[in-house]
Every structure is written in structure tokens, then in C-alpha cells.
Amino acid sequence: MTIVDATRTDAMTPDSTTLSSPSAATVPTSGAESAPASAAGPAPEASPAASPTPAAGWVRVCRVDDLLVERGAAALLGDRQIALFRTFDGRLYATDQIDPFSGAAIMSRGIVGDRQGVPTVASPMYKQVFDLRTGACLDTQGKEPQSLGVYPVAVDDGIVVVKIAAEGDPR
Fold first, then answer.
1. What value does the mean pLDDT take over residues 145-171?
2. Which of 72, 47, 69, 82 is nearest to 159 (CA)?
3. Taking the alpha carbons of 66, 83, 139, 149 in that order, is the dihedral positive or negative?
């Protein structure tokens, strides 16, 4: 699936979306049409009648305004722990909360940064650095490389939604 940015001519990757434009992304809904997202101004409280149900696999997590810039937030989606990140440029990223090197649920407490334009998070445990877009380990600290799971993120009417694949689904 491609997240569409109405202000750009090129398609964005599904792992992030820009929040600065009034119509930054489109998220599939359970109906036949897509619901345009809006991040302009404070998001209204979601009500069952006002906001369509996300398409299969997409889960509502929180309001965009609930995420602090350059800070992580943890969320429990079913039995899966994820970490959400909002960067200075307004992009959102979702990764596994479990650090692949230590097994601890700490990634949302990692240090958010940038390596030559690549958004990163450093594990607070052993300091391995991961690309927020792909989950690739950029700095293994002398250990065998392991990757961090990443998930597509979008904004639907001011609400952050994350696509969680079913068991056995390669995402």
C-alpha cells in the first residue's frame, strides 16, 4: 500500500507520512473509499459515527498531538508492543518495542536522531542504532547485526493508525 501525500507528486513509502499539509495522507477504510487525513489544527475527539473504521490490519493508536517531537511512545496493540516516534520534520514511525539485542521492551525510550538524513533511534540498553524507516541496524556495537521490526504508519483525521500484519503475514 502506498500512502499518498497530496502536496507531493511522488508516492511516499508506507512507513511514514508528512503531517504538515492539511491533507497529508490517505488511509484505506473498511468501506469502498478512502478517508482523507487531516492534521491541521487540533484533532477533534474521534467518535464512532464521525470516523470510519480502518481497513483490516490498520489499528487506531492515538491522536497525533499526543506524540511529542523526537520522543518515543509505547503502545500495546493486541499482544504486540510497538514504539511510535514523531520526528522534527513531522514524520511518524512505528517499530517493535522489544530491543532485538537485549529482549527488553525499551525502544520507545531510545534516543531519536539522524544519520546523514536517515532518521534513527538508538537503543537505551546497549546503544545499537536503528534506521526508523527500515529497521536495519546501523551500529551493532560489536555484535551480530539484527533488525528491528517496522510498521506502516498513517494519519486518519488526526488519529495515528498503524498497520499490523496478521500472524504469518510478511508485512
1. 84
2. 47
3. negative
How far CA 2 is from CA of 51, 76, 84, 101, 149, in Å, comes to: 21, 25, 19, 31, 19
Name residue 90's amino acid: G
Query: Domains in the chain and their CATH numbers?
Result: 26-40+52-163 (2.102.10.10)
Q: Are the CB atoms for 94 and 103 separated by under 8 Å?
A: no
Does this model's pTM top 0.70?
Answer: no
C-alpha 29/C-alpha 12 separation (Å) is 19
Alpha helices of 71-154 — where are they, by DSSP H? none
Instruction: State CA 35 to chain mean position distance.
Output: 18
